[in-house]
Amino acid sequence: MEPVPVRCRIPELLDRIGKDQQWLADVTDKGPQKISDYCNLRTVMNLRTAKLMAHYLNCKIDNIYEWEWQQK
Questions:
Q1: Do 56 and 17 contact (CB within 8 A), yes or no?
Q2: What span, in angstroms and rounded, lies between the C-alpha atoms of 3 and 31?
Q3: Domain range for residue 17?
Q4: Helix or strand run (H / E) with residue 17
Q5: Would residue 21 count as lying in a domain?
Q6: Contacts of 21 (CB under 8 A, 6+ apart)
Q7: Contact (CB, 8 A) for 71 and 4
Q8: Residue 16 belongs to domain with CATH number
Q9: What is the pLDDT of residues 26-72, one digit of tens each?
Q10: Chain centroid to CA 39: how far?
């Protein structure tokens, strides 16, 4: 079995701190399209990016995605 992200929580985490995706793109220097790709699971971020996002979203890395265990 392996963990698979099933939902990105960035939009709700941004809502919680009163910020938007453009703000996150600006502070992380990732660009609005890349943030959108993360939010819509078109791209799954690497560990370094997840740590950066967690820092600005004031959460733990594990809180960025909802995960499910799936068979390989």
A1: no
A2: 27
A3: 2-66
A4: helix 10-17
A5: yes
A6: 10, 11, 14, 32, 35, 36, 39
A7: no
A8: 1.10.260.40
A9: 999 999 999 999 999 999 999 999 999 999 999 999 999 999 999 97
A10: 6
Residue from 13, 17, 71 nearest 39 by CA: 13
Structural domain includes residue 71 = no
Per-residue pLDDT, 72:
79
Tell me how many domains the chain contains. 1
Q: Other C-beta atoms within 10 Å of 14: how many?
A: 19
Is 24 a domain residue?
yes
CA 66, CA 5: separation in Å to the nearest integer? 6
Residues 18, 19, 21, 22, CA torsion sign: positive
